[in-house]
Amino acid sequence: MNVRVFSSEVDAAAACAAHVAAAVREKPSLVLGLPTGRSPLNVYRQMVALHQRGELDFSRVTTFNLDEFLGLPPDDPCSLRAYMDRHLFQHVNLTPKRVHFLDGSAEKAQWECARYDAALEAAGGIDLLLLGIGSNGHVAFNEPGDSLQAASHRARLSRETRLAMAPIFGDEISRVPMAALTLGMGALLKARRVILLAFGVNKAAAVTAMVRGPITSHCPASLLQLHGQVEVWVDSEAGHGLEGSG
């Protein structure tokens, strides 16, 4: 893994947005994998700013978001689709038919996951995947456990993950759904390029385990060691355990 330690989260976000813009210029029909949570917020702000300056054209870009809360329809203000609308989609020129999202309110979760995997395959897979990492080492909503699933699936959310998502629900963890639909590890590992973002001291242990620890389902992000094109971009706090890496 190529580790880059930035002086601040804002610097990392600006570099990430610039990287996305360069990738889109190189391939205007880029297939982009997008996360939610706190880590990408500044990246999305920077991407919107680049678009408003005419430096990032999304008109031919295709996006696939990584996950959605089970039971929430797209128009629920607490859904991850609503998060993306607020922070990115409403502010750039993405073509609606090129925006792909899991439907947390689908009647049959298994069928919805199969539909999503088929749509991603039809699009040719993810060219550039942006990822965050949970404090417990999860990526997307692939939680630590005795095994991991390759395909999209229904995932039971850990308490750590639900705590991290509580701000979307007015800081009330009891309102955070117990489960979500998520892309599986197979789609993440098939992405052609990956940039993983991690900021803050609470991510340091997970980042160290991902980069330096064994490859294990108990730290799902560690499987990215098997990928040949992964960038790990952190601030000094998240990268505290990686002195000498990269």
Automatic annotation (TrEMBL):
Annotated PANTHER family: GLUCOSAMINE-6-PHOSPHATE ISOMERASE
Protein's name according to its UniProt entry: Glucosamine-6-phosphate deaminase
- Keyword terms: Hydrolase
Q: Which Gene3D superfamilies match?
A: 3.40.50.1360
Annotated Gene Ontology cellular components are:
cytoplasm
Give the highest taxon in the source lineage: Bacteria
| Pfam families in the record | Glucosamine_iso (PF01182)
Q: Which InterPro entries match?
A: Glc/Gal-6P_isomerase (IPR006148), Glucosamine6P_isomerase (IPR004547), Glucosamine6P_isomerase_CS (IPR018321), NagB/RpiA_transferase-like (IPR037171)
- Which biological process terms from the Gene Ontology are attached to this UniProt entry? carbohydrate metabolic process; glucosamine catabolic process; N-acetylglucosamine catabolic process; N-acetylneuraminate catabolic process
What is a single molecular function from GO for this protein? identical protein binding
| Organism of origin | Cystobacter ferrugineus
Q: Where is the Glucosamine/galactosamine-6-phosphate isomerase domain?
A: 11-228
Q: What's its EC?
A: 3.5.99.6
